[in-house]
Amino acid sequence: MRGQAENFMARRNLVTLWLYLLFFSSLGFRTAAQEGEQPHIRVVVDMVQLNVAVTDSKGNYVTGLRPSDFVVAEDGITEKIATFGEGNEPARRLGESDLASDASVLGPASGLVQRSSAADPVQSLGSLIAGANVFILFDTSNYMYRGFVFAQDAIADFVRSLDNADKVAFYSYSRDLSRAAALTADRSQVLRGVRTTVAGDDAALYNCLLLTVKDAAQFTGKKVVVVFSNGPDNSSMVPPEDVAELAQSTGTAIYMISTQQAKLEPVSTAVFERMTAATGGKAYFSKSWRDERQAFASIRDDLAHLYSLSYYPQPNPNRGWRTITVRLVGEHLKKYHLRTRDGYRPQPARFSAGGSVGAP
Q1: How far apart are CA 127 and CA 171, in angstroms?
Q2: What pTM, to 2 d.p., does this model score?
């Protein structure tokens, strides 16, 4: 009996040892397999684009400035300008031959600052600094019964005048957003969208403006939203602060043209002015259809005189709101006024089948 018991204990210990070995070997195999199956994380270059207007004390545009005249800082950290352009000219690359190989970027999974690989470019620099994409958002609410045709004419003239913008989109809004003409280089398609709009229903400006900014954020290069509003917002669920922050974070400038009726409400006036200033745009309040045409002409003139700057952010642990400051160097330039967005919040990396992403 004693011998049988010893043999039983020996067999049990052997089985236990075998189970332990099997468990740990399978665990090691699964760990190795999991490590081997981890997908390659592609690092996305986080290039920040700025549109900067420079004017003198009389509001005249200052032209002929050079990249060395500008100093850009993010959260107090001086940045190196990567591309530079003035007005409608294509932005040109500055400095080293391949800045993207040493650009600070955000990893899509961890959010940690990493480095991109020159051998694995995510997107060509040319597409990141593409020309202007202009989104027009037209108020077709019941505020627009008066002067509707005059507003359509002013917008149509504005569309025809945008010879240097790459593409134009035309949206309209009342309670809901209508994408009458998607972003296109075909001006006739946009004009058909303008002429087919009709007025009626309540105004949900901020709801629809948020959707428009989200559409614009999908594209690279200079992004502009031009809003024509004849009255206050009376049915939105989205606060204007959310719209302004998204526009800032995606580098989308907002210009707003409002009629005298909108200006009669102090809250709307203050919101329009704050939103446009925060994004680098401007607000206009028109008393007549002639003023509307002049406002559109002023926006076209502004787009033609903006300086386009971009930079790759230096390593920055701040994943929240980042403050941007732009100033001019030299005593003779300090008297000029600058207008641009004042910051952004880093957006999650956006991947597509082709591996392209939008820059903030």
Answers
A1: 24
A2: 0.75
